[in-house]
Amino acid sequence: MSACHLTERLEQRLARGIAPSPPEIEHAQRCGSCASTLAAAARLDSELPRDVTAMVDEPIPPAPELLAAHERPVPRRGLRFAAGLGTAAVAAAVMVVAVIPGQLLGTAGRGPGGGGPTETPPGEPSPIGGVPDDMAAWVAEADASIWAHLDRPLPAPDLRLVRLERCGDNALAFFADPGPFGAGPLLFGIGSYREPPFEAGFGGVASSVDEPEAASARSQQAKPCEVEVDTVLSPDAALAAYLRFLAGDDRVTDPQVLATKLVTNEIALAYADEIEAASGLSHQQVLVLRREGAGWAITGAQGGDFPVVGVSVGITPLGVSKSMPDARWAAVGRTEDERVVAIELDFAGFTHQYPVTDGAFVIALPPDVGFELPYRLLDADGQMLSESTSRP
User: Fold this and answer.
1) 3-state SS, residue 218
2) 172 - beta bridge partners?
3) What is the pTM of this model?
4) CA 341, CA 359: separation in Å to the nearest integer?
């Protein structure tokens, strides 16, 4: 997925030694790409002098001067992906997402002796389950493995686990990328949790748990991935936020939240079903939520007659909803077939696999994927249960 169109301009301003303006800082609070770029410059400015003073006698110039001295933009570099990915999957991932330039500067690493939070921050929902005993050792090593493979400053901090999936003999983990704005991307990696030495592959940077290269990593597994731990916004918390949003509005009855999905550490999606009071007909919404203090608030909604059964998948653009970091689209659907644990979507010439939780899903997709996407519903053994084409 492409970086925000403002990121390159922000990099150029930082390279010229120009401090970010208040509007740029405010924008970065909603944009993971720009937040990571500012975080990179801030970390370089604050940590590099301290780390180098033990080795040199001369004072080191401020980071903006160092950046300006290069007299050229920071080079872009493709992600290095989880070990074992097929050539086609890697090609798909490189086409869709590149590491933002700020990552090359050492985004968000703590200095020597530092460490990140290890527990869920106050106000966040509890995981849907604890880390299983047979995966605990791998999880304990995965964050440091991902950090090292991404060439981040050492020593690696303790990263907060956002999501853990079991993919047969492999595990897929997402950690919050620490940063001054708390809205940066996610770090992820995949590897075998069965026997040491425990590795999480080469790691990667994703702006959501459903980013296409994370989906490509899932697609390479022998069995569909099943969610074990998820600290993402819970359906109950999303429903409470939606009820507050609807206060005094009697146009709908019996709202339900079928599925939720983290987009960044600060933004989430929710797939809601409700009854229109006037017609008595079922109506669906894709809600955009933003973290506010200890809770969440609705900042936008996209309505439509999306499917509530597993005969079709609905696709909707989200670019018109405020607080979204870019012009993403979303796929939503629900199935009553308890055997379904994953969905495969075909777009951009490749297959991407996403987990289905409790029979429902809401997936953040790249911009302009279109409406008619072939898809297949899969069981735990990876066998296809049904297939069709998505609709608006």
Assistant:
1) helix
2) 165, 190
3) 0.60
4) 8
